[in-house]
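Saturday, quiet lab. Running sequence design on the structure tokens for the scaffold JK sent over.
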């Protein structure tokens, strides 16, 4: 009998331990379940708030492509500008004054403006634009506006630092425009060629007639000085001719005795590489100056 009571007592102890274990497990499970339930409830409450802020975030994302595009455009302009400046410095010699002689019937203002801006960008100080019909002279305001526009497109913000003297009329009165601190753009026509020589000769004759000087004082050097003083610019070292005509077409006949002429088929759709190729050829050419 005592043995039976002992077995029952042990069984009761086992049941008590099992009960305690079950109770402990249930407590842990309930606490864990409540935690997950709390997390789900909080997620349900916060999700609408997160979704409410999503359109603003989406709008910001939609704005970023434009900002990124603008930043990329600025980087491209800066890179291009540095490349052009580096190209100019890499040449063995760079003309101080370059002439753009258009020997084609229908001039393109945009392409000529691009050429002018590229010349500025590589470091050329004087750019003359010439056509034998005087089209650019008659429409110099249109050309100037196109130069300013292309300068902003090609040089960006840096373009505003340039300040050009735009010389366009027969008396060479300076027209200052915000285009470049170094370059001077001059629009030429046949009137600046032979006609300028005639006008200089007439001026000398009048000075003799008015007894301001003697006929013995008149010389080639005096005429040369008079012609150069009327132009305010140095002689062109390089003239780039565009078109099929093999002629200077009256381009400053008094000022081109040492000028190098190089030809390109057309100024239309011209690229920077075309212009730089001409500058490279000029950079390596040897001018013997009559020797």
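Result came back. Writing it out in full:
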């Amino acid at each position: 009998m005592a043995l039976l009571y002992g077995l029952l007592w042990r069984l009761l102890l086992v049941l008590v331990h099992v009960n305690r274990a079950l109770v402990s497990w249930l407590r842990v499970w309930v606490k864990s379940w409540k935690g997950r339930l709390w997390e789900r409830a909080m997620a349900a409450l916060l999700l609408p708030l997160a979704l409410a802020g999503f359109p603003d975030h989406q709008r910001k994302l939609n704005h970023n492509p434009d900002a990124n595009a603008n930043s990329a455009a600025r980087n491209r302009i800066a890179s291009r500008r540095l490349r052009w400046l580096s190209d100019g410095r890499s040449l063995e010699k760079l003309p101080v004054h370059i002439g753009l002689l258009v020997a084609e019937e229908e001039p393109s203002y945009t392409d000529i403006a691009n050429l002018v801006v590229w010349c500025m960008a590589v470091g050329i100080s004087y750019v003359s634009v010439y056509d034998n019909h005087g089209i650019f002279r008659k429409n110099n305001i249109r050309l100037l506006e196109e130069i300013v526009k292309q300068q902003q497109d090609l040089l960006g913000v840096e373009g505003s630092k340039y300040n050009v003297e735009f010389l366009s009329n027969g008396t060479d009165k300076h027209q200052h425009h915000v285009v470049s601190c170094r370059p001077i753009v001059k629009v030429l026509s046949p009137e600046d060629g032979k006609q300028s020589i005639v006008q200089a000769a007439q001026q000398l004759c009048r000075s003799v007639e008015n007894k301001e000087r003697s006929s013995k004082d008149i010389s080639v050097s005096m005429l040369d000085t008079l012609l150069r003083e009327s132009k305010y610019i140095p002689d062109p070292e390089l003239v780039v001719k565009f078109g099929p005509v093999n002629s200077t077409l009256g381009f400053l006949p008094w000022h081109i005795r040492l000028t190098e002429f190089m030809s390109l088929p057309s100024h239309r759709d011209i690229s920077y590489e075309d212009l730089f190729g001409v500058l490279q050829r000029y950079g390596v050419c040897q001018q013997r100056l009559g020797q």
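Notes for JK: Confidence is low (pLDDT under 50) at residues 49-54, 169-181. The two ends are 144 Å apart (CA to CA). Ask whether to fix the surface positions before the next round.
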